């Protein structure tokens, strides 16, 4: 299935710019443009489970909001299951589920079961399918004893499980999870992770997971994308990310034309975007011989060396959140 729909989620140069007005002094207001997402290009195949991480303010939520159609991109092209989210938000809503760890989609005063009933109607889910999905979620997420309890009385872990079920009642093809394990105790975390793993394996649901807990990624995602300042700065395995974190610098080269990934000794291409390529090389090595080699063999237009900012970001994430199991 995966091989058949490699661009199930498909972003090409997606941008989002916010205009913010700030008061400066008594009367003057200043307009400032915030580039929250700055030329994002990536594809996620159907059935993949991908971690989407980055420091605070990196642009993760903005990306997810564009993927769900809540926000319209300022530029670029974006498709989910072939649908342009901003244009056909309602049609897309039938195909996606969203869970925000910090916020609930359930009705605070109603018992869980009543929230589900409302969703049944809102999404016009066929009765048999609704019952089947609800039964499955109740069993696997252990919700049986909670169905008659008003949401406000649920613990955070119980509510999270309730929210995950709510997002799945209409059989979405894609599930976006934003911090699904935040604030949960160890047992609840394990339950949620186990459920998501099975969901992905058995139902083939495509999952995009935003989290600060790298153990979520470790246990669930073969692939992780790192975003920083609205740009994709890493796309690969978590172990590869750890390696990259071990002090590398990046040579960014602009070429006259698109060429296959550059092959030079002592560096490896970590990212290609049109005529621009990013090469990681050990921070301890000198950039000069590398630059000379690239310039000799490739149609170089411009270049710059970046200090290990991404790596610093990751290191910080690791330092802040030592994986808690
Ligand atoms: N509605 C908005 N108006 C103005 N600026 C915004 C708006 N939403 C987000 N931003 C800005 O865009 C940038 C990216 O924000 P975003 O919420 O996408 O980051 P994030 O990666 O989800 O962060 P966090 O991990 O803290 O949730 C930030 O600088 C933020 O202040």
From TrEMBL:
It is a peripheral membrane protein. GO terms for molecular function: ATP binding; ATP hydrolysis activity. SMART domains: AAA. It is found in: Cell membrane. GO terms for cellular component: plasma membrane. The keyword Nucleotide-binding applies. It holds the Pfam family ABC_tran. PROSITE patterns: ABC_TRANSPORTER_2. Residues 21-254 form the ABC transporter domain. Keywords: Antibiotic resistance, ATP-binding, Nucleotide-binding, Transport. GO terms for biological process: response to antibiotic. It comes from the Bacteria. This is ABC transporter ATP-binding protein.
